[in-house]
Amino acid sequence: MKNMNIRQRMIFIVLSISIATLIILSGIAFYGMWGAKSTAREIGREIGQEATENSAKTLIEQKKLELINLAADKASDINHNLDNIRRDVQILSSEMTHILTNPGNYSPQPVSEPNPANGGVLVPQLLFSNAYARNNWALDYEIGLTANIIDMSYEFLNTNEVMVTAFAASKNGFTILTDTYSDEQGEFFDSQARPWYKLAEEQGKLVFTDVIEDVLNGELCMLCSMPYYQNGNFAGVVAMGSYITDMKKIVESANGSNKQFAFVIDNNGHVILSSYDKVIAEGQGGELLVNVDKNFDIREIENQSLAETAKKMSAGENGVTEATIDGINYYIAYAPIEGMGWSCAAAIPESEVIAPAIQNSEVIKNVTDTNINELDAHIFQTMLIMAAFIVALLFVVAYVGRKTSDRFVQPIHELADGVREIASGNLDKKLDIQTGDEIEHLSACFNAMTDELKTYMNNLTKVAAEKEKIATELNVARDIQKGMLPNIFPAYPERKEFDIYATMNAAKEVGGDFYDFYLLDENHLVVTIADVSGKGIPAALFMMISKTILKNFSMTMNNPDDFAAVMTLANNQLCQNNDAMMFVTVFMGMLNLKTGEFTFVNGGHNPPLVYHKANNSYEYIKVKKNFVLGGMDDINYIQQSIKLEKGDLIFMYTDGVTEAMNKNEELYGEERLINCLNRSDKNFSVEELLNFVRADVNAHVNGAAQSDDITMLALKINP
Questions:
Q1: Fewer C-beta neighbours within 10 Å, C or N terminus of the chain?
Q2: Which tops the pLDDT comparison, 515 or 278?
Q3: Angle at the Cα of 375 (from 369 to 381), degrees rounded to 5?
């Protein structure tokens, strides 16, 4: 400075100030860009973490709900499969009781002892216990009568591929067996020592044995048995053995991914059905493989989380929990299989549930890292350009430095402010930075990133909307179904000779029960009550078809005396193209309003009750056993009739009333029903009577979930 002239000093000062200014402005710009990069990285990390947490919570709750519905659906499907077995055994028991109680209606039929030559052929075989005394005329006569059950056994075994054997075992020491196994020649067959016999005799009701392995082929099977009676006294046990093949298919159909599976445990803690073997590699694990070994109880294994889950399932609980299976964390939803003590569960690995959320987090991280890397490269290029300008434009560096600083710093702060607003949740925020350089490109990248996040959130919203739409459509279906039933009361205000009232409460959004009533002419009133197999949409569709067919045939009936023909024609119509193998129980009656004669036909339905004013009490109508509609064609239904007087009343219902179950799994039952009706005020209107019965059922259920449709109809002849 000493040896410099004024001009040089001025130049030096200007240059120094300019250089210092450039350095300062460059530092500010560098600091701003570096801060923007750090802020962008942190915001990207926070957005990714928040998106991961929110989406993980949503996905977990959604998957839990899906698992609960899946477990409940599979449990319902298995219970429906078991209901088919129960139905066949109940029919066999009812037929044997009828044969022994009405021996005059049947002729003794021949049946031979086992012949090894018949091995592999479905034939009836007569087996004896070691207590049997030959040349006993009375016992031989009972054997001949019992042999009348053979035709029905053949029919069930030939129409149901999983049914493999049928028994009719008398308490007097003989057994008629319909089976392909014929190696009992020369050996005694003590049915009374078999579990299926002893369980049915001790409990006096329909029972299932434990699931075991068939000694012939290793397939899992079980037996369903039920007592039969002679004049009200225990006479023996009928039983049918079946493979659980169909239930196995139901469980295997639950495998919705590579690791998702389902399983069923019985009331002894044995895994009797499982698709776990489909999701594990050979030789890996095996905690939930099928194991019917009596010494293996999954509730007692060392894996505490799985053991606790099994205990909840055995207790008949519904729910969803987390458990470790062979070292892998799973979500497990479970639902009871009603009436069996079994429980069905669906499981999916925790990793598969949250995998989409983790993937979203990785996508966000990758987008952020890519943009930060681009920003680093642009910062380096910018610094080189600024150094070149310092050398070439020293005299204008101050001005250029200020403009350059403004050019870089201001957009960077604008970028940082915009990113912070986006991070606060405003995904509609758009960065409008038009600098024509890398900062503008970075802002475009952030805009693209917010669009992708918004699209993802919108997709989640659409999924929720679709579920709400399905619920709305089910509500519409329920309203349509209700609209098909007569629901305006009083139904015939101009007719003073009778009153009628009916209600139907579905267990789900739509149901399979229905009732109907209509006048054929001035003197004939037809009433109908029915219960379709199953529940939900399929049952509702079959219900509408059944109701329409029954009414159409009734309205076209030429001769009221041939009321049974209506049921026969309707049954044949329902059997056509019935690929779903659905059926319906129906009680249909016709009241002659002049004479009081009530003509009725029962198609496998619960017997109604009749109130006789003269006796001031209710009693069950003795209905003849007719087959359900839709199960088998060309059935001739039997018509009956009773005489009703003024003041008498008919009460009709579906099994949802008598089978209403409380939390202790106690049925409401027929005895409670008749006691309730006899306690009712005999001056009740038909509507008050139905409300009284429903209140009594609700008191018994005491808050337990409704398991079946509840339908009632009352018809009173006014004095």
A1: N
A2: 515
A3: 145
